[in-house]
Amino acid sequence: MSVRSDRAAAILPGGVNSPVRAWNGVGGEPTPIASAKGARVTDADGREYIDYVGSWGPAILGHAHPTVVQAVQEAAAQGLSFGATTEREVELAEEIRGRYAPAERLRLVSTGTEATMTAIRLARGATGRDVIVKFAGCYHGHSDALLVAAGSGLATAGVPDSAGVTAGAAADTLVLPYGDEDALTAAFAEHGPRIAAVITEAAPANMGTVTPPRGFNRLIATLCRNEGAVFIVDEVLTGFRAGPAGYWGVERDLDLAAGVEPWQPDLVTFGKVIGGGMPVAALGGRADLMDQLAPLGPVYQAGTLSGNPVAVAAGLVTMRLLTDDVYTGIARRADALADGVSTALSSAGVTHAVGRAGTLLSFFLGLDVAPVTFDQAASQDTAAFARMFHALNESGIYLPPSAFETWFVSDAHTDADIDATVAAVAAWAQ
Ligand code: PLP
Q: Is the pLDDT of residue 96 over 50?
């Protein structure tokens, strides 16, 4: 194992191509994965694990679903990339719009980072304003304006979260505590006419899983509409994952059941599930805004591999396989996992809170109330999580290697997988 990771570290900074894979959040030697099938990943030594990473979201049907693999093989045989529009990418966009009505028009890109970066540019271009409001603890990819740290308290001018992000790039990003209606209202009162956009995860899932306080997304929508700002909902992680129409759909259904008109985003970003494990992401939204993108409008955006035919084939067939029954099954198993692990921890006297957003979940050890803000999430016992992570890894269960990540249940997880996971947590907690 260490020979392979030494070799990786000699050529890839930190031995990885994306930082979370280095296990800095839990320590120890990352497990190199050789293959995956269904709900299981197999490491380079041939050990199998029940997988709750799911490629960080895309593997909603389980890994290497035969229909998806076949679609990819057939598409590859027809040519890997043309740099021209294909019928299939139109079908994928239609499939997304059919489930997510606010995405009236779509632009396919390759990564979530591109989608959110383009959304920001489009919002600024359309409004002629500079200021972006984001929330501490919400991750929107690694473009400069969005890599801005949390400032505690009320609105603070953004401080770069990474070396190499200029103060200028961050200066127009205001960071607010998530879920804080007063801070948001005050930011609009003070900066309203300068605000181009508010961007938020539909439900935060990059500080652990957080349930948005009811009414928070609606308040953002109202303030943006009143002030002429663009409301960008980032569903890169939650889209077609938290539920059949992302987390927007979860709140839409609650609103409709309560006889309330659902709120609407102006722009929405997708990734992960819409590529079914291949690099596809998208920006969607109101037609009048989207039509300001080149070639129709003045906001430039382009991509050599955007809407790549092989990647789109994986996304399209994945979306088509995601029936209501599939979501019902995932929701049932996610509930069983959340309840089972929570009961096991409680029985052993381990203080914890469960974070939920649709079918997404995570556990905050050391907290007895599920957090809403990043500061609350950051006060969890990360050392205890690291101990649980390693104990479960030893038992053949592959959790996300950070206390700040969401656990992904797929359609391939069986009741027996969930039971085995709960038993492993119980054994660790004793
Ligand atoms: N937005 C959210 C909510 C995400 O969770 C992520 C990635 O995890 C991104 C954007 C960035 O997507 P990508 O990693 O494809 O660039």
A: yes
Looking from the CA of residue 238, the nearest atom of ligand 1 is: 3
Q: How far apart are the C-alpha atoms of 238 and 57, rounded to whole Å? A: 8
Which distant-in-sequence residues (6+ apart) come within 8 Å of 95 by Cβ?
316, 319, 320
Q: Give the least confident one: 3-17, 26-40, 130-144, 321-335.
A: 3-17
- Residues in the chain, overall count: 430
Q: Where in the chain is the domain with CATH 3.90.1150.10?
A: 3-60+323-429
Atom of ligand 1 nearest to the CA of 201: 3
Please check the confidence at residue 2 and state whether its pLDDT lies above 90: no
- pLDDT of 1 above 90: no
User: Which active-site residues does the annotation give?
Assistant: 139, 234, 272
Please state which CATH class domain 67-321 belongs to. alpha beta
Residue closest to 231 by CA, chosen among 122, 78, 382, 114: 122
pTM given for the model:
0.96
Ligand 1 pocket residue status of 217, Cβ below 6 Å: no
Domain 3-60+323-429, architecture per CATH: Alpha-Beta Complex (3.90)
Task: Please indicate whether residue 237, judged by its CB atom, sits closer than 6 Å to ligand 1.
Answer: yes
Distance 206 CA to ligand 1 centre (A): 9
Which residue has better confidence, 399 or 164?
A: 399
Show the tokens assigned to 332. 């049932």
CB 115 within 8 A of CB 109: yes
Site to probe by mutation for ligand 1, drawn from 140, 200, 207, 232 as the one with most ligand atoms within 8 Å of Cβ, is: 140
Helix (H) or strand (E) holding 281: strand 281-285
Tens digits of residue pLDDT in 349-367: 999 999 999 999 999 999 9
In this structure, which residue's CA is closest to atom 1 in ligand 1?
A: 140
